[in-house]
Fold each of these.
Amino acid sequence: MSKPLSSKDWFGKSAAGLVLGFTLALGAAGLFQRLAGICDTFFSTKGQFAMWLMSPVWALTLSFCFMFRSTVRAWLWLTGANLVVWAIVLILEGPQA
Amino acid sequence: MKLPTDLVKMYKEIHGWVGIVSGLALFIAFYAGAITMFEAPLQRWASPPTTLAPAPSLARTPELVSKVLAVHPEAAKGYEIHLSVGSANPARMSWTSARGEEAEHGGGVKHYASLAADGSVQVVDGGPSEVAQFIDVLHQQVGLPFAHEVAMPIMGAIALLYTIALVSGLVVLLPSLVSDLFALRIGKNVKRMWLDIHNVLGLFSLPFHIIMALTAVVFAFHDQFYGAQGVVFGGQERGDRGAASIAAAPPPASLSPLQLVERIERQAPGFKPEVLVYGQGRGGLPSLRVQGSDARFGLRAPTYGMAGLDPETGEITSTDYMPGMQDGWSATVTSFFALHFGNFGGNAIRWSYFLLGLAGAMLFYTGNLLWVESRRKKERQAGAVEQTRATKILGALTVGVPLGCIAGISLTLAASRLLGHSATYGLHSAIYYAVFLGMTVWALFRGAAGAGTELTVCSALAMLTIPLSSLMVGPGWFDSESLWLVDATAVGLAVLMVFGARNARQRARYGPSDSVWAFDTKA
């Protein structure tokens, strides 16, 4: 059994949640934009929906990032999640570019 | 539900810290937000009877518009025709002179026009009271007196902390959920009682709080979100709406307001048009928008939905924000706004949101009380006989900030009656912050125990200045009977606060003497 969870390393974990949570949210919005086939954001309602998606993804990543066992794990796992999302975004963009 | 104890313990500590950092700001946001549910009636309540000549009929409105534009050609850039005229909209026609950022957030000088009995144009600059709008901004900026672009990111950070507080609070509550759910132990153990109240308020209004937290994050950071999406994924960024230049006066709209209203009613039965907004769209072309409401649907803006119209034919050309005519995506996005604003379902939902808002304010207040109580316990375990300075300061702020906010809003509302036409946004702001800061400083100076009773009594008295101001000005200020509900609500809240003051006094005298809520016996 690894060492118990503690709020002592809150700074490293929440920094990971704040930074990588934001890029993850941006990736999620991008994923939605690709799937919905839109490129305009502010003037289309689908684009607005994509923007709204960022709030729950970012806020919930930040809320749950404390559940990682350590700061290092938080950064690694969230980096991994980012890579997966952004890879799909880039693949979907590929043929169109 | 069983959860690992280390997880619960960790989230309990996180809950305490994010709560204590954001709690007082959230109290102000929720208290002011609850009041903002009745922004429109409050504006009517606070507005002095107009000095303008009675508004011309809709049929005579084209005459008014052409006469005003002859004298004030700058109004052609954008003006509104109010279809219903009352104390909140004293004039048939209004326009705003503001620049850039100022215009985007509803600032600038408003002008109101009417036709005098002899047919000449009459324009006044002071319009309906802006006190309700001040309370709305106070709500949006969690009580911070800073410029919009400074206050909003801070509000966003508070909203993120609020989300963490909701998640962590739920994790902490889950293990004892079943046994604590319907328990409200009012008795000798004060901390237990506050905790039960805190849990009940938090759990039963959780969906409301989730909506508020996530929408607030968007309201704070939408510029940044759109900006980041624009940079990374390309596409058109949010346009600069202040950029439209003053072109030559656009050709007068082919249809008169009366004809437009008739066309709108034919195309959208059930929609109640309230304002026609004339402006210049992209390329300086005349644009026309209708604002109104439809009780069957949620609305995009706090009190209205809108549709784009062709000024020449009256045909509805843009339905993105038109209640009942939106596609699935627009309706979904609108529902996020409507759920925050509580503008669906009429007055029943408005009152529910008002109560949920006050319950939210109580949630944060009880959270602060619990923090102070558990600090006391921890410090006593650590051998301290007296409260530390930090706990004393926090106890004082927990009393001073909420009560300062309540009294400040009450007095600035009542002041609208004394000031009449000389009331300005700045003056209302000055009154609020003077009271707020005065009471907060008093609490810090006197300590939580003394200030708790004194300031609650002060707040109750401040609340009573609201009905007092109504008695002073008389029924001339009331354009409808229902506005007396404002005064009735104020009396109700004042009575609640008198009870609160009595309890605080009891506790200060007879409660545990090592508490921050006890009178300092050495003094």
Amino acid sequence: MEQGFISRRHFLKRTSQAAAVAGAPLIVPASVLGQRAGAVPPSDRIVMGGIGIGSRGAYDLQSFLARRDVQFVAVCDVREERREIVKSTVDKHYGTRDCTMYADYHELLAREDIDAVLIATGDRWHALLSIHAAQAGKDVYCEKPCSMTIAESQALAETFRRYGRIYQAGTQRRNAGNFVLAVELARSGRLGKLRKLHAQLVDARSMPPIPSHDWLPAEPEPPKLVVDWDRWLGPCPWRPYNRLYVQGRWRNFFDFHGGSILEWGSHTADLCQWANDADHTQPIEYEPEGSNEGPFAVHCRYANGVELVMRDSGWLGLGSCSVRFEGDDGWVETGDTSKMEGSESVREFLRPVSDYREAMPNHVRDFIECVKTRSQPRANAAVAASSHILCHAAYIAFQLGRKLVWDPAKGEFAGDEEANRMRSRALREPWRI
Amino acid sequence: MSQPDVKRETAPQAAAPKPATAPRRPEPAPEYRADQILGLSASQLAALLESPQATVFQKAKACQRLAAIGGKAAVPALAGLLADPQLSHYARYGLEPNPDPAAGEALRAALKKVRGALLVGVINSIGARRDPDAVDPLVRLLASADPEVAQAAAAALGRISGLRAARALEEGLRRFRGPVRNAIAAALLVCAEGLIKQGERERGLALYRALISPDVPKAVRLAAMHSAFVVENSPARPI
């Protein structure tokens, strides 16, 4: 158990007050100064809160709690049950009863002692909450997909640039050894001139590319304290309550989810962007193929001629979220098994480089180090926004069933008004970005 | 192009720990199936909005579809729902991305017709459209007795930007206190960027300097300091 956890600012305030009152030299225990083995002084700890910590968020939370330089102090959720579970987890970890619960995220963001927030709500809240957190002066680690639309993606990048806050998207494969090695093989020229990139999407049988516009049957709303349905919906269009949504079955509904393309494209197309040295642009053409029942693909082309194929089938079986990079001199493919396959020309480099389970701690470490040094993590807001714009453009092309031409500089489709209208969605009052 | 040694198998093989994939979605209610509505033409959708027999679900889906395909002819039917507490957001969903000037006119007209949260929504949509014709009514709403409305007006003015919006926001920064003032400060940051993009570099810098004050929220103050530094040191490069 780590004792004596208090926030940095609170620590400084208390100790200076105490010194002033006592009028005596300040005597500080070695553990507080970090002089005891493994201890981190309060001034070096990042104070964090969590918003919308469910099953995925709990996985993220463990990586944060495992760090001695992070102090988790608060949780916010629209579900009472979730608030209490997370508080219990955090308090048990620290051996305290200090984790504060909130139903309204504004109260959490208003706390001056909180440096950063973990956002792991459903997708509908990701961009809006991240933006509001940045405006409140917080750094953000946010689960993916990071946005519901192209407009939200753009606003996300603009806000974090404007406020100078640190953002890390939950695209942890950017810090997974096998994926990093594959990307480096592409970027270093070992594959020769890059020709074709492949990004795996969720199998359409599990998750169709186009979610449903239907509603589930109406059920009586629970008391607001138990589940605040209005706040759960947030910026999304109103619909009647059904418990299945809040129990995690919100995926595959259009208002809440971007379907297969956003679900895994936010990981895999993101890696392709990196491999192609295209983190700050997107492909200029998007051509859909296949049906909503699968198999399906979106064929994209960058301005530099490199092709990107986002597809749900035809993989070597190296695990979920596979990517494949092909150049004139060779190819490499990898996935979540961490296994790698490649052409003879690169086989000498292909060895077990990591366990996939290392990805999350690595990704969280990248974030925390950047919070301390004010440098940019691998999945920063500009990079994440660009990858998400790519995915949204592919998603729109698939919905329309026609080839689209995208202008990355202007942020608009060429000569297709319907597609351009789909770049944004009006948010429900009172929400805005 | 030759592709030496490229291995390809067509059938995906068994694999590994999977990130979240959802089980097949649960069955929708029969009265909440959208397929038929989404297949209607724009004129049929507009007619559905005006039909007394149509359900909330049908109207909601019609509005969402009209967001992509509704033209000028769909605007009156959508505008007619802006004061409906249950469907106002859906009406904005249909109007906000519609590039026809009639959509902008309908939203501006609604500024005088709706109140409270619905008015906040209309203001937000006007801000999202960056409608320069709405600056004068938004300046008036900056002084609204409803702080939520005043904050929304500030944010919209920031997004629209321009010299008139900048003047109003600057004055508001001096005149108001509390959450409205904080919203104005945040809006001025956005407004300054807009001005600089429009070539009004000095005016934009002046807004940043106005925000570098101890009584401005710290996050905004720091952002203004940073932005001013970037602009002052990169004369040829827009932020």
